[in-house]
Amino acid sequence: MNILVTGGAGFIGSNLCERLVSLGSTVTAADNLLLGKRAHLAALEGRGDFRFVELDVSGPAGVDALFEQGRFDCVFHLAANSDIARSHADPSTDFGHTLGTTWAVLEATRRHSVKEIVFASTSAIYGEMPGCIREDQGPLLPISHYGAAKLASEAFISSYAANYGIRAWMPRFPNVVGPRSTHGAIYDFVGKLRRTPGRLEVLGDGSQVKPYLHVDDLLDAILLAKARMKAAVNVFNVGGDTRCTVRRMAEIVVEESGLDAAIVFTGGDRGWVGDVPKVDYDTTRIRSLDWAPKRDSEQSVRAAARWMFDQAAA
Ligand SMILES: NC(=O)c1ccc[n+]([C@@H]2O[C@H](COP(=O)([O-])OP(=O)(O)OC[C@H]3O[C@@H](n4cnc5c(N)ncnc54)[C@H](O)[C@@H]3O)[C@@H](O)[C@H]2O)c1
Predict the structure, then answer these.
(1) Cα(278) to centroid(ligand 1), Å
(2) Would the pTM count as exceeding 0.90?
(3) Which pLDDT tens digit goes with each residue over 86-142?
(4) Fewer beta carbons below 10 Å: N end or C end of the chain?
């Protein structure tokens, strides 16, 4: 297939590009390098079945020209602001980079008759809904601008699917970790330990608890769902049945660092405004396809931390 990956120079996007090329697809990665890096795509540069385009995907004219030239069979839309805390100070970040990119991609998808879109959605759309959340529960009341922009994106993807015969897959990701991560708690902890090796400051009281998924397991789930789920709009939670507290994550990162660092908590039940402290959601839908992650949450966190320290040492 001829595939466009928006946000292709980011953490998940670059891993996805490598996977799709290895499966025989021709891939175009589009990214404005807001958070992604060209170096993330080093393994693919120079190949005939891959190209990188530096582009602001929230700009409809540029995206339209890309589609005109690309003649894509399918779009994986990952471009977004992934820094949830940042949009508290500047809500326009998520309006533009998270919802605006979706709008521009959908318009180009319609105009150029692309029939498949896979959208990187998130558990953040559920807000602080209690219990183990199923995909069909509501009302959905996000507490971050990021979650709101992702929910609005899902809504437009659904209406475009109904109006223009586009098939959509909308996996709702948990916290995803692994090689080339550009943000998130593990990334922050590793950076802090480099700056102050004897002390790790952790936002909140450490009791926040969420599922963590390794990027390789996430990609297995998405590609399996794309092959097997055949509804017009396919919404599904992705995650294992394990979770990890922020306290345990900090301990694992310190263990992997080999440092003798004191872990200090700033207090409060969450890391920042918009952070959902307890996340638990039902994954029966994706598991019914015989998918299960190869690593549990703690193993995923440990593998991601080890990769970052190995990179720093190399
Ligand atoms: N990592 C996670 O835990 C997680 C969880 C839930 C959902 N997601 C979603 O998965 C996707 C990938 O996330 P990630 O963790 O790889 O983050 P990331 O920041 O590494 O990747 C997002 C990419 O989008 C690019 N981008 C942002 N705005 C753009 C714009 N206007 N035009 C072009 N490119 C733009 C960034 O430069 C970046 O490379 C995102 O949509 C994110 O919301 C990630």
Answers:
(1) 22
(2) yes
(3) 888 999 999 999 999 999 999 999 999 999 999 999 999 999 999 999 999 999 999
(4) C
**What are the DSSP calls for 137-166, one per residue?**
------SSHHHHHHHHHHHHHHHHHHHH--
What does the chain come to in residues? 314
Tokens linked to 114: 């692309």
Q: Angle formed by the axes of helices 60-70 and 101-111, to 10°?
A: 40
pLDDT the model gives residue 204: 94
Give ligand 1 pocket residues (Cβ under 6 A): 7, 9-13, 31-36, 56-58, 78-82, 97, 101, 120, 122, 173, 175-176, 182, 184
Q: Which of 5, 12, 37, 125 for mutating ligand 1's site (highest number of atoms within 8 Å of CB)?
A: 12
CA angle 15, 157, 9 (to 5 degrees): 20
Mean pLDDT of 73-83: 96
Tens-digit pLDDT profile for residues 292-311: 999 999 999 999 999 999 98
The burial class, CB within 10 Å (0-12 / 13-18 / 19+), for 113 is: exposed
Domains of the chain (ranges; CATH) run: 2-176+213-237 (3.40.50.720), 178-211+241-281+295-308 (3.90.25.10)
What are the structure tokens assigned to 127, written together?
A: 């807000």
What is the residue-wise DSSP string for 76-125? EE--S---TTHHHH-THHIIIIIIIHHHHHHHHHHHTT--EEEE-EEGGG
CA–CA separation, 108 and 95 (whole Å) = 18
Q: In degrees rounded to 5, what are phi and psi of residue 226? A: -65, -35
b (16+ CB within 10 A) / e for 61-73: ebbeebbeebebe
State the greatest distance between any 2 C-alpha atoms of the chain, in Å, as a whole number. Answer: 58
Atom 23 of ligand 1: nearest residue by CA position: 7
